[in-house]
User: Fold this.
Amino acid sequence: MSRPTIPELAKAAQVSISTVDRVLNGRDPVRSQTAEKVLAAARQIGFHGVRAIERRLERDKPVIKFGFLLKQSHRRVYQMWSEVLTEATDAFPDAHGRAIVRFMDDLSPDKAAEAIYSLSREADVIGIITSDHPQVNHAVDGLAAEGIPVVTMISDLSTASRAAYVGNDCVKKGRTAAWFIAGLNANGGKVSVFVGSHRYLAQELNEMGFRSYFRESAADFQMLETIATLEEPEIAYEATRRLLRTEPDWVGLYVAGGGVTGVMRALREDGGPVAKRLIVVAHELTNDTKAGLAEGLITVVLSHPAKLLAETLVRAMAEALDAGRAATLSQHILPFDFYTATNI
Assistant:
């Protein structure tokens, strides 16, 4: 059998013979999408120059410095995100990616803005999770004007200058937390929600969905005042202890922000009837929340699909660098997983 020819490859790839020639010999630039089409066709028909095309594509890949600004370095959930985002950057097929991960131990808005500006001096594009505040938005606006796109992950910002959002439908997530708590409590009772800060749009929307479900579908439950933990386990610990002492009808807790380890510690220490019947819904599957599920301290964990989110975020960041992209916000709404003691 004769080997496939260049004209046959051009026909299979639905491009011109001159385009195939440029891909094979590298004399002139070819759009990466076109080169990928030629490579796929070459593999399909068994073209002898597959390795040459692969080398050309590898050589022509851009180098992109992906900057990721995460929250507190001491929290395991952000250590996990650092690892997953670095892996997704290394595996990104369309560029030679370099992950630059920075953490914000001080979550105040002025420090967050400083951290954003600092990272912009190292990165081509930035992915962030931070609070929604005028100082933060001003920093994002400034970077957008300089051609450095900012993509939000997990929690969005209100500025129109961010290039994309990658995360869950947060209202739906809050309503799902309420559905679990209501469904697992036959007689109603008091329910509460902990947020890390009211400045995180994701957590505000989680709370909104949580409250709206009980208003609409579970009138036997009474909503307690929302508690902000400032993402600190010690504050969550003290708040949980106080509610265990003062609210004998407390039946459900939704931990929409940080501090879940403090909640677990309080429940473990108390061990009373309220603690034993309390339905706790938390976010993100980590070693800590896995332990909480296994011990029966947490009932359900609603979690971002970590690998999918990281891959989607990296691609959205790369696309935001494309000068020809439409100047509109790119929304990537991902499904969320749920875990119980039976499926961890």
Observations:
- The radius of gyration is 25 Å.
- The chain has 14 helices and 13 strands.
- The CA atoms of residues 130 and 243 lie 29 Å apart.
